[in-house]
Structures are given as C-alpha cells and as structure tokens.
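Let's sit down with a protein and look at its sequence and fold side by side. Which protein we use is up to you, so please pick one and set it down. Label the sequence line and the structure token line clearly, so we can match residues to local backbone shapes. Go ahead whenever you are ready, and we will take it from there:

***
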Amino acid sequence: MRRIRWQVAAVATLGLALVLEALPSVLHWLRVGRRQQRRRPPRREVLFFPSQVTCTEALLQAPGEGLSGPPAGCPCSLPHGESSLSRLLSALLAARVSLELCLFAFSSPQLGRAVQLLHKRGVRIRVITDCDYMALNGSQIGLLRKAGIQVRHDQDLGYMHHKFAIVDKKVLITGSLNWTTQAIQNNRENVLIMEDEEYVRLFLEEFERIWEEFNPTKYTFFPQKKQSH
C-alpha cells in the first residue's frame, strides 16, 4: 500500500514539475493570443463621389456649441445618415495629434469647419496648397490662416496638384477628389483611406519635401532690395 502511495506521489510530483516547466510558454502564447485579438485590422476604406447630401452638423459641433447626441436631434430638413462626405469627415476628425493637408483646391465649408474644429482641439495642422486656387472666392485657406493654422503655397508656373491628407502620421487619405462642394456633390471622384506604414511614410516624405520647398523665406514674389555699399 505504501509502495502504491509512493508511486502516486512520484507521478504527481513529476506532473507538477512538467506543468511548471511549461507554464511560462503557455502564459506567453496566451498573452500573444490576447494581443492579436485586441489588435484591429488596418483601416482600408474606399469612398466614391458624388456624395449623397446629408446633414453633417452632429459631426461638426464643438463641445458646448448646441447640438449633441444623435443626429436625430438636428432640426434641419436634410436627410440624416451616412454618406461619402460624412465618412471622410469622420476620418479627418479622428485626428488627435497632427494633420497634414496637401490640397490643390479647398473650398468645402464642411471640410473647412472640420479642420478648424481639430485646430481648436489642439491638433497640429499644416496645409500646403496652390497659390492660384487659394485666392479664388469661397476658398477656405484665408479662414484657416485667420484661425492661426500654418499654410504654405507654391509660387511657380506648375500647379500644386496633390490631393492628400495624413492623419496622426498613421492614416493616409488620397484620391482624385478636390475638397470643393462642386467635386463632392457633382463629380465622379474617389478617395482611398488606408492605414499602411510604408505608404504613409512615402507621402509624409513628399509633404515634408514640399513644405520645406515652399518655405516663405524662399519666396521671390518681390525683388530683393539692393544693399548699399
């Protein structure tokens, strides 16, 4: 009887030792599995325009500015629901740290309000645009500058024709869409929203290159004064 008890105890001890030996590996793979479950897939979204006209007020209200809660609380007569424009606004308004904009034409009031709202929230915003189109009636560029947002523009004969945005240096928004009401409501356009480190890096490098090239200290609109000797 004692021999059987000793054998049972030996087997139990051996089993416990094996369990303890394997425990670190098991815990490691459990942690890995949990991280993988928590890690959401990278964002991939395609928007097509023209966009359905919908109310965007619920998205564009700053805290304490009236509307809050569900869109159903808005008294306007526009339909309430998701549209390509509302999805584009949501992608922009997700910014928490930085927003780089490189845009040929920017006259959409809704997109302009979204950028100003981010600026009020403390998001660092930089804008690159085309010198000819920034001067047209309805352009949002003057309003952005007045709000204190940094803007740089070209001064050469070719157009600054890019149309992209980078959100928090993680999400790229690019496509054929000019940020104008005409393009949003009437044109056949596309926008790609993607979370991809390599593509974001390439577009961010292009942004930084142009940002430096368009440094106002390098502008030559006015002739340099001759220095007296």
Summary: The domain at 42-53+79-215 is CATH 3.30.870.10 (Endonuclease; Chain A).
